Amino acid sequence: MSATKADPNNSESFDVIIVGAGISGINCAYRLMKQQPDASFVILDGRDSIGGVWDQFRYPGVRSDSQIYTYGLAWHRWPFTKPIAQGSEIMEYLHDAVSKYHIDDHVRFQHKVSRVDWSSQRQEWGVTADGQGQHRRYLARWIIIGTGYVDYESPLAPDIPGLDKFKGRIVHPQLWPQNFYYAGQRLALIGSGATAVSLLPAIAKEAGHVTMIQRSPTYVAARPCQDDDTLTWLPLAIPMWFGTVSPGPRQRKLPANVPVDPHFTPRYDPWRQRLCLDPNGAFYQAFHRPNVRLITGDIDTVTEHGIRMRSGETVESDVIVTATGHRMVLGGSIEIQVDGKQRAWGGRFAWNGCMLDGVPNMMFMLGYTNNSWTVGADNTAMYLVRLMSYMKRQGAMSVVPRVPEAVAAHGTRSIWQLESTYVREAERRLPVCGNTGPWKPKNRPPIDWLYARWGNITADLDFSM
User: Fold this and answer.
1) Which of 11, 98, 288, 364 is deepest in the core (most CB within 10 A)?
2) Same domain, 297 and 175
3) Could you report the per-residue pLDDT of 206-258, keeping only the tens digit for each?
């Protein structure tokens, strides 16, 4: 592997450029340091801190939605003793990890990557990053996209009639205002997913009144969240697929005035949308509070001072919180060009859930819908270091996936196998999967984990010397 250097045009060159300093990028950096120690790399991030979504999301009650022994990093011990982690604890943990292993030495903040362009002639990527009013140019053999799937700048715009008429304050959890004072106010919380389930117990403690409005119910599994000292030594990101939670009985956790039907009888099968975890039943317990109400139904319109349901029921509000989902985007809206031709994400086949058909030397990090994000991202990091070792032995400079005609002819499947609103809205922008071989969706954590470490990594790949 080559050392860091500068070309005649003053473009720094690396073996690997990682885009994003969240969990995916941090984990990939560690794998490179330990398993490709001769490879030069840098992490470019458009923000001014590590953490990705955990630095972005600062709404009350923000926490992990999966147990930390699958969400944490396999190589860094989790220091706290509860299996569900608060956002602040995750940030503390990540800062400790990058400091301990000196990963922070490789991070460059306020470097928002806007474009990457591959040259087959030079067998390398050109990377354009914008920051502090300047354009910076880098070169790399490999590009790793570790930006997650959330559009940081533009949350999903909720399709709520009359929202622009509201005279009060409208807040999206993704852009929660700093020092937002809502004590004693009337809040209407619109949504039923993981964000709403986390938010409700937290804001109910200070708000004058909270009405949660959901169009359709979600599966919410209440599970104990007790101190457990074993978590401080457990190897964290082992794929604990056998511990996946499932929906359980809800009747005993709800007050008499909140019936299971219709409020907690989803219209879909479990895992069609992501199941929400409720530590110690805090979400269900919130409905026992006199200042919390639940409405299930369709919104007719937002008025100047609240919300009118199609049932005729009204919700007077000072604040509307739109926990209606994120805008899903892969690659952080980075423009991709290969030999001067643009390569769109939408509709392009994904090889092993981490490389795009026809795009050389580029990987993207994607987690699971039925397990934690970190397990899937770590699998991709293992594909990377294994491919780099193989290519070094073979003398290859680049590798590109090529989807066989037979695979393409047998139809496609969604790469993100949920039916949530934010997924349907993003479908046309996402890559697709096939039905056979390395083009199948990655939805079997134990098999994927084994395959990423010892399986065939050359199937349907073309190598160039």
Assistant:
1) 364
2) yes
3) 999 999 999 888 888 787 776 665 555 554 444 444 344 445 545 558 888 88
Give residue-wise pLDDT tens across range 348-364.
Answer: 999 999 999 999 999 99
Shared-domain flag, residues 144 and 25? yes
Nearest Cα to Cα of residue 380 among 328, 438, 436: 438
Residues 26, 138 within the same domain: yes
Q: pLDDT (tens digit, 9 = 90+) per residue, 417-465? A: 766 677 777 788 889 999 989 999 888 888 899 999 999 999 999 999 8
CATH number at residue 250: 3.50.50.60
Q: Which of 180, 144, 45 is nearest to 385 (CA)?
A: 144
pTM, rounded to two decimals? 0.88
How many helices (H) and strands (E) would you count in the chain? 11, 26
Same domain, 336 and 296: no
Please indicate, yes or no, whether residues 354 and 247 belong to a single structural domain of this protein.
Answer: no
Find the domain containing 115 and state its range: 5-48+109-152+328-464
End-to-end CA, the chain: 14
If we measure between CA atoms, which residue out of 160, 193, 192 comes closest to residue 317? 160
Rounded CA separation 42/11 (Å): 13
The neighbour count for residue 450, using CB atoms within 10 Å, is: 13
